[in-house]
Amino acid sequence: MPEKEIDFLALASIEYLKKKKNPLFLTTSNRWKGSPNTPKSTALAKAFAKKLPKSTLIDIPSLNIFPCEGNVSGNGGNDCGPKSSALKDKTKNPTGNHRCWASINNNSDELWKVSKALFASDCIVFFGSVRWGQMNSYYQKLIERLTWLENRHSTLGEDNILAGIDAGIIAIGHNWNVGAVVETQKQVLKYFGFNIVSALSWGYQFTKPDDETNDSYKKAANEFSEILKEVQKN
Fold first, then answer.
1. CA-CA distance, 196 to 125, in Å (whole number)?
2. Which one of 1, 80, 132, 184 has the fewest beta carbons within 10 angstroms of its own beta carbon?
3. Does the pTM exceed 0.85?
4. What is the pLDDT of residues 45-58, one digit of tens each?
């Protein structure tokens, strides 16, 4: 996708977010802690946050989030998200809406930091990297752990508590499948019950699948740096 088109999409996202009271940004890409390089999607989210002082940014890889326990599909049916799975801690779960067995079974689990911020927001944007044609593993783990939000209305017949929250996904990848990934995850977030916003849902792919030279990675980094400068400047 041309650099100027990405600039336009990023600035359009920021303009939309200016209308929101409490936007939440969740970054899901990672690097080794000693790396001097910030993931591109995380750098973009931080640039957004600087433009939007009312926003909250949570870096998912820095949290201790346990894997999903797979309670959706057991012999007894779907046991993900019933009232009995509500986290009984007023500090972690002030709304009472956080319902996840993995949070109960693992005292050090920090998914509550995400849900607490989510329930206080009116807009959420997921930022992440595309790796091997799919969203990265931290994003996928997060989405699986949030399944109880979807089950409340799809399986348990309760209200959709996400109906008033806008959502989008911004995905960054080098050379494969970024557009398809964005479309798939938009559908996932729609299933969850969010209001999907086109202005907050787009992807950046530098080159084609057969271009995996070291030079292309360097050029992509340089191009993205220019994009970031434009976002920070405007």
1. 10
2. 132
3. yes
4. 999 999 999 999 99
Contacts of 205 (CB under 8 A, 6+ apart): 1, 130, 173, 174, 175, 176, 178, 179
196 contact partners, CB below 8 Å, separation of at least 6: 166, 167, 168, 186, 189, 190
Give domain limits for the chain: 3-233
**Whole-angstrom Cα distance, residue 85 to residue 120?**
21
- In 3D space, the residue among 204, 69, 223, 209 whose CA is nearest the CA of residue 148 turns out to be 69
pLDDT computed for residue 234 by the predictor: 75
Exposed (0-12), middle (13-18) or buried (19+): which is 199, by Cβ within 10 Å? middle
Q: Which two tokens stand for residue 143?
A: 């989405």
Mean per-residue pLDDT for 182-191? 98
- The two beta strands, 123-131 and 134-135, are antiparallel
Q: Which residues pair with 26 in a beta bridge?
A: 58, 126
Dihedral over Cα of 100, 106, 107, 111: its sign: negative
Specify the CATH class of 3-233 in words: alpha beta
